[in-house]
Amino acid sequence: MKTYYVYLLKCADNSYYSSITRHLSKRMQEHKAGKRNNTRNRRPVQLAQCLEFNSLSQAVSSELSLKNQFVSSSRQFE
């Protein structure tokens, strides 16, 4: 059975980044080494949350929900 991880990073500029991967430790090493374009200029990054799923569709749905949560909560402070 394949495992998918939805992860949330807190970046040095206090922004957040989320994505999906099958290999969490490898992906974290890539983020920390600056090998991922989306977080290269926002290092250092810290793992803020990680959720594990057995299907890609569940992971995608969860990531979308997580992103919507952050968008709506950030709008409360505008």
From TrEMBL:
Alphabetical list of Gene3D superfamilies matching this protein: GIY-YIG endonuclease
InterPro entries: GIY-YIG_endonuc, GIY-YIG_endonuc_sf, UPF0213_domain
Residues in the signal sequence: none
Domain spans labelled GIY-YIG: 2-78
SUPFAM superfamilies in alphabetical order: GIY-YIG endonuclease (SSF82771)
Coiled coil region boundaries: none
CDD domains on file: GIY-YIG_UPF0213
Pfam families: GIY-YIG (PF01541)
PANTHER family linked to this entry: UPF0213 PROTEIN YHBQ
Annotated family: Belongs to the UPF0213 family.
Name by which UniProt lists this protein: GIY-YIG domain-containing protein
